[in-house]
What does this fold into?
Amino acid sequence: MLQPMLRALVLGLCLAAGPAGACETALVLSIDVSGSIDKGDYRLQAEGLAAALTDPTVADALVEGQVALAVVHWSGVDQQALVLPWQRMLTQGAVRRFAEAAARAPRAFEGSDTAVGQGLRFALAQFPEVADCDRLVVDISGDGQENTGFTDASARSEARAMGVAVNAIAFEEPGPASPITRYYLSWVVTPGGFVITARGLQDYAASLRLKLLRELSKPVG
It folds into this structure.
């Protein structure tokens, strides 16, 4: 059940959303809160998400496309939560309020294992609510490979069958190696999708900004 503060934020978003129009993209922002993400890391993710959403270029693209956004937290088996339900970004004020709610949202789980496939499946289950949107995208971020549940490949197949694009941000340690990036490319990202590598959580906001701009750009041809 949503905590009172988060319930009030969500209610404010709903009241301020305004009439819905043509939605170009429905985007689930799926955030890793497993055991490898400590409290400081979580705050960097939450604040980085808010910073990326309110970047002027990103905010303009969100409003222009009347994008629907939702935020999911995921960790181990049976640990997934819809933290912010679907909201249409119809105005700059709506973007700002959604970003503020994302920054303030309490962590859904204190962290355990890393069930990437279950997290993806939970994100996919949110799309029937936004069936009028032209494109369906899951934007997953994480710093570890799946170590429980072991449903990542099957979840990716389900995404493909639904016509959902899955992209990722991989948090890597400093240095040349990129095992998490390779993992997401091999097991999670759908054909035609992409992974952006962030060198540490401090790089999350800038990486997410680039990722959002790429996801929200209109297909050519």
Notes: The two ends are 45 Å apart (CA to CA).
